Amino acid sequence: MKTVIKRILLSLAFVCGLTASANAKGYTEILRVDAALDRPVVPANQVEDVVVQIKIRPELVHSDRERPPVNLSLVLDRSGSMSGQKIEQTIQAAEVAVGRLGPRDRVSVIIYDNEVDTLMPSQLASSESIAEIKRRLRGIKARGNTAIYAGLNQAAAELRRFKDEGYIQRMILLSDGLANHGPSKVADFRSLGRALAGEDMVISTIGLGLGFNEDIMTTLAQAGQGNTYFVENADELPRIFAGELGDALNVAATDIEIIVRPRGGARIIKSVGREAEIDGDTARFRMPQIYSGLDKLALLEVRAPKGRVGAVEDLIEVEVNYVPAGEKRARTQQVSVPITYTEEVEQVVAAARKDIAQNVVANRIAEAKEEAIAYADAGDRQMAASSLRSVVGKISADYGFLGEDVVAAPSAEISDEADQVENEGLSNAKRKSFRSDSYQRMNQQSVK
Q1: Global pTM?
Q2: What is the Cα–Cα distance from 200 to 209, expressed in whole angstroms?
Q3: Which terminal residue of the chain has fewer beta carbons within 10 Å of its beta carbon, N or C?
Q4: Residue 27 DSSP one-character state
Q5: Which domains does the chain have, with CATH numbers?
Q6: Splitting the chain (448 residues) into consecutive groups of 10 residues, what average pLDDT does each group show?
């Protein structure tokens, strides 16, 4: 009990120290950083693998004036396969998106088939401009092939015109087809996405129907550090566009870097879900933007060294650097994460964090789905199914002691998925669903 009280007092002192420091600097922190272990108490005198969760929680933005303006470019597919309901719903979705912009925002609209046209060059989103965009959208006709690469480049050119004027730069790509005009390899889009992300352009992708290339769309979103969606029914588009733009209009901070350093003989093993750059004894997570009121997580597996009974040691140190939206100067927060050693099994169980364990389980399942896709693509149903079943054993071994609510439901679901993959293979729709679900989970993307 004394140890628990001591840790609570230390935590309170840390929080008070952050508040005092922020006030002394003349500002209030817009982010709250929480770092904790899935098992903060472990058995003494043996090496243990634990997972640290770093949670970043931005404060809510309460008014339009608090947010920086957005420079948005919509990149819309008008190829022949978009005819009928698809193009109509796309137009409606685009109207919803531009209708949510404020007069300080900018918007441009790019349409493409085998040719690329700038339907509306970048301009302030005044009521007159929005009305004109809606009028021009209604004139779009489906035709031709699918020049996604060229459409993205044209959208980037529109964003670049005002990139030094303090805007949050956002691009939303929609396509229902394969990239069959111009560059069409996944590597081409990975390079393009990374290049545009290097210019602070965040790219989100929406794949409509069953004819698009989910590898290109997911890779582009990953490299462009945005969101990705698999939409079977065009009726869902207005909701997706509205939710995606809601993120862009509520950016709380940019250029987020989470740096994790082990202490006292601890060793970094690997990231879980969200990818980290691991170089020796340092791990770095990078996020281009985080959104008001929406938590972002990073998970890292760490090997804790042996500790004596009753010892409380700092296991890792976490540093979070970020730039508040609308500002240019970076800020930093730091926190240490302790681990406690015990000889009482009951203390290990009582201290375990179910919420963190559930996040770890979800991300390990997402990783297993990515692995299953690779095996299925190689024509090996058995290994695809095995990769899904193996994660069931892993999460049961790690968290079975936490009870049915942590492992039972996800284990049953992924076991059913494994049976289906082994018996039927990975269908086009299921592959798209796996890839989208995996990406969304590992990047803590909210489901719009």
Answers
A1: 0.86
A2: 29
A3: N
A4: -
A5: 27-63+252-352 (2.60.40.3670), 68-249 (3.40.50.410), 355-442 (no CATH)
A6: 41 39 55 95 96 90 67 94 89 90 94 93 95 93 88 96 90 88 90 92 92 92 91 87 86 93 95 93 92 90 96 96 89 96 95 95 95 95 96 92 86 93 93 92 74
